[in-house]
Amino acid sequence: MDHQLVVDMAKNAITIALMVAAPMLTVALASGLTVSVVQAVTQIQEQTLAFVPKLLAVAAVFLVSLPWILQTLVKYTSEIIRSIPQMAQ
Question: Which of 18-44 are b and which e, b meaning 16 or more Cβ less than 10 Å from the residue's Cβ?
Fold first, then answer.
């Protein structure tokens, strides 16, 4: 197995992982920031108030983006399995 092939496989795996996680991380960041600003303005310092909206927002984005996530992961897995004979050379 060539070193360049290993580097390319690792790069592709990291890229796919970031693509799959990005929508949920972005929504978690945005909802957390929004709730923090609201808490700072209203001076309500309740920990569950920050956690519950973030959890609900991430769950909603996960459910909406699940078909795309599965399609992306199945495509990547298929490409890896198809490239096994080339890696064995």
Answer: eebeebbeebbeebbeebeeeeeeeee
